[in-house]
Each structure stands twice: as C-alpha cells, then as structure tokens.
Amino acid sequence: MNTQSPLPAPGAPLQHYVSIAPFDLESVEAMTPEQSKVFQASQLRLMWWKFRKHRLALVSGIFLAVLYFGILICEFLAPYNLHSRNMDYIYSPPQKVHLFHNGEFVGPFVYGRQMMLDMDTLKRNYIENHDDVQRLHFFCKGDSYQFWGLIEGDRHFVCPAENGQLFLAGTDRLGRDVLSRMIYGARISLTIGLVGISFSFLLGIFIGGLAGYHGGIFDLIVQRIIEVLQSIPSIPLWLALAAIMPITWSPILIYFGITVILGLLDWTGLARAVRSKLLALREEDYVLAAQLMGAGSSRIIRRHLIPGFMSHLIATATLSIPGMILGETALSFLGLGLRAPITSWGILLTEARSVSVIAFYPWLLLPMLPVILVIMAFNFLGDGLRDAADPYK
C-alpha cells in the first residue's frame, strides 16, 4: 500500500504547515541534570568546582587556613610562655611522646630526664628515666601570658606534668622551648607576608594600571624603572635598605619598615602583569562606552578593567607571598631584619648560624621546617587559583 503523499501538480502552490505549539528548547536539545547545573552556575561557583579538583591546592589552602587561625591563639597553643627559661635543661633535645608504659596504656606522656655533663666536650647529655612517667595535661593552667598583649591568661592547650618538662622540639641556649617560640614566631613571619603583599598589591595595581591604560611617556618611564629594579640582585638590595633603618627604632617600627621594604621591591612583577592585561582590555567596546559616558580614568580602571582579571591578580599575589616570607627570614637570619624581643622564624634560625651548634644541637634547625612547608603550600595554592581563574578551559 502506497502511503506517500502525491506530488503536487506542476504550477500548483506548495502547501505550508506551521506548528502553533509553544517552542520548548529542552524538548529540542534536552540537557542532563549535570549539564543544567553547570549551565546555570555562576562564574564563582565554576571557579570553586575547578579549584576543588586540584587536590594539592585544596589541602594547601586548608593547611594555611589552620596556620593563620593558629596565630590568633598562639598564646593558648604554646606549652610555655615566649620568654620562659628552664635553666636546668639548656640545649635539651626533643622529647618523644609515648602512649604505653610497660605494656599498659597510660595516655600521652613523656619520660623525665637527667642531665650529665661530658667533661671532654662540655656537651650536655640527657638520659631518660623510664621510672619517671610524666603525663601530659590538656586545657590546663600553665605559664601566664598576655593574650595579644591585652588580656591576662594562663590556659594552654597542653602542659607538662607538675614539676615535669615538655620539650617536643628541644630547647635553646637559654633553656627556652623551641616549639613555643616557633608558634609565637609564626605570628610575625606569616603576617609580614600578608601585610607586605597588600602594600605591593596596591602599588602594583595603581602604577601598572596607569601605565597600561594611558601608555605613552608614563608607560615608558615605568618600564625603565621596573627594569632597573629587577636587574639589581635582591639580597644586596635588601641589605642596603635594611641597613638604612636606625638602630634606635622600636621593634614595631622595624617590623613595619621591613614590610615596606619587601613591598617596595615586589610590586614590579605585579605591575607588569596588570599593564599587559590593561593594554589588551582598553580596546574593548565597553571601555569606549564608559569613556563616552564621561567616566574618568580611575573609575574605568577600578570598576571596569581590574574586576575582569581580579582572579588572575589574586593568584599572582598568592605566589608572591612566599617571596615576602623568605625575604624576612633572610634579613633576620643575617641580623639586619627584625630584632629581639620580636620573635620570627628568621630570628630563631640565627641560633643555628654556627657549625658547631648545628653539629651538637641539630634541632635548632627545626624552625626551617615551617618555612619550607608554608612556601610549598602557598605555591600549590597559587597554582590551583591560577588554574581556577579561567574555569572555561
């Protein structure tokens, strides 16, 4: 049976059929729930999804968040006060935490120690007394302190047993607990990176934005200044600028002076990144529309151009923070940065400048461990943010 429609006769008008049903996009090109979720997500959510896939960056971000939360309560976390001295335990090596004693579960504890002086080398040797079990206490009362220099307190997360010792990272030449000083030093070493990059961030955006948007002679002068600054070796320049600071300055002024020095020397890379982006974006139509509506240069840069690549700037700034931390550590280690009574990781490493000290007391190099971990974490975090900055790739 022939079901085909007969062909129209030659010259006869063609018949047209128009559907009056409403057009449904999903019926034509149906999307799965996963596709619909991605299609309707905001750019910020897309960036988060892509960042979450970078496992190293996610773990690094959590690690850094824990560290920066810890510097808020470092007085509570440290077993001892920053300046507490245990003169009977000078250069005491790190103690091990045990859970079992003679096959029985006791809980976290350390063994007591006795000091023996080697008369040939004058080295202090500490021998564990396995009959002296010193259980650790948590959320306990210990050395008194001033929380952020304002509130008196004596509560600690962990404390030694009564008349006992707890030196998980050993002690230094004055019998001060190295772990407690590392926890206190994190407040300076970590915040100096944030404060320095904030100063560098503002300077780089301002100078790089004007150079990229206006161009001309201003751009030429800025590029020559950047080339001169980048051609000077970092360490000698740091030393020269740090030596300018008067020795009579208070520790707080020295802290801000080091921060300004690090910020002044680190803005060049960010300024060039901003300039290159603005050179491409200033030719866009929306910039011309803003100019025709009477918007000034500062408003166009601030409201229209910079938000377009802010995620890239955040990633760049994140990768610059390790340089700030290393700069402070190097200056303090060389004796031209922060000075006592301020405590930072660089100042703690000055205890290990002597080869003999490193040979006899290697635990004084432990402050180098958080420096390495923090720098690696910032680098991994910066890589993840840089990949997530363009979620459409």
UniProtKB/TrEMBL annotation:
Span of domain ABC transmembrane type-1: 186-382
Family membership: Belongs to the binding-protein-dependent transport system permease family.
PROSITE patterns the UniProt entry points to: ABC_TM1
Protein source organism: Mesorhizobium cantuariense
Pfam families named among the record's database cross-references: BPD_transp_1, OppC_N
Name of this chain's protein: ABC transporter permease
TM ranges: 56-78, 188-213, 253-274, 305-325, 360-381
Highest taxon of source: Bacteria
Subcellular location(s) per record: Cell membrane
Keyword Membrane appears in the UniProt entry: yes
Membrane topology: Multi-pass membrane protein
UniProt keyword annotations, A-Z: Membrane, Transmembrane, Transmembrane helix, Transport
